[in-house]
Design a protein that fits this description.
Layout (H helix, E strand, L loop, with lengths): L1 H21 L8 H22 L7 H20 L6 H21 L7 H26 L6 H26 L3 E3 L3 E5 H22 L5 H29 L14 H23 L1
Length: 279
């Protein structure tokens, strides 16, 4: 299992690094939004599959269409420096669309699950698509090379996951949240927290010398905490759906949700950190 995890992780890292490095090259810039669209759609379908195990009737087709439109909108708006409050209008139309499509699909049908179905469909869009869109906003952040901040985000988040895994395996004794994730320990969480801060400082030293050490450590601390909360949030969903992994898409790693559970939470935090504190 460890060999599978390492091999899948290495291949995934090469793919992600290639996409990020090419994202500011005019000839290949389209690869980034296409990759995020694909990930968002696959992740949303995984989420819908989990929810259907609980009896929900999700709006898959409209969810996929909305994901593609919204990710492309965020890409265009980020590249052209549109104000973020434009998101309010885009999200409003998606809200209205979910209600309209649900109404048309369920009209004259004897079904009484509107509250569950609409809530689940909305949550899937926000949990997967909206949170993932912050990756594009970081990568194309105005006035800076957002690729470095995106790589810092990934390094810090995945370092927290890796350090938590190995420190938990070797030192873990005190259960963290046994009702949500029986294998997670306090010692593992502390190791993940330390790994996020340490690797953030190392990455800053080699690739981002202009970023202050104070901001680096603070961001590492925030990512180390928030990322593990994202991991627990996905564990809660899987435990409720009674599955071990969201899918078997990546051997040894699980599905899109398993790989990106922490990044769903750390990407928007990093964006707002950049917007409100650094710049």
């Amino acid at each position: 299992m460890l060999i599978k995890r390492a091999l899948s992780g290495f291949l995934l890292a090469v793919f992600v690094l290639t996409i990020i490095l090419l994202s500011h090259c005019a000839l290949f810039s389209f690869l980034m939004p296409l990759a995020i669209m694909f990930i968002a759609v696959m992740g949303l379908l995984e989420f819908f599959d989990l929810m259907e195990k609980k009896g929900a009737k999700t709006l898959k087709a409209f969810g996929v269409i909305s994901s593609v439109i919204y990710i492309w909108y965020v890409y265009i708006s980020s590249c052209n420096g549109f104000e973020m409050n434009m998101d309010t209008f885009a999200l409003f139309y998606i809200f209205a669309g979910f209600f309209l499509v649900y109404f048309l699909e369920r009209y004259n049908k004897d079904e009484n699950s509107a509250l569950l179905d609409i809530s689940v469909s909305f949550m899937g869009f926000f949990y997967i698509v909206w949170l993932l869109s912050f990756i594009l906003k970081i990568n194309y952040f105005p006035g800076v090379d957002g690729r470095k901040y995106l790589l810092l985000l990934i390094v810090a988040t995945k370092s927290a996951d890796t350090f938590a895994y190995f420190s938990g395996k070797s030192l873990g004794k005190t259960k963290l949240c046994p009702r949500i994730s029986p294998n997670k320990t306090v010692e593992g969480a502390l190791g993940g927290f330390a790994g996020s801060v340490i690797m953030s400082v190392i990455f800053k030293h080699f690739f981002m010398p202009d970023l202050s050490i104070k901001h680096t450590i603070l961001l590492g601390i925030v990512i180390g905490i928030i990322g593990q909360l994202g991991d627990l949030a996905e564990s809660l969903l899987k435990r409720d759906a009674e599955v071990k992994d969201s899918s078997t898409r990546f051997p040894g790693l699980g599905g899109i949700l398993d790989v990106l559970d922490s990044i769903f939470f750390t990407a928007p935090v990093t964006y707002f950190f950049m917007k409100e504190i650094i710049f």
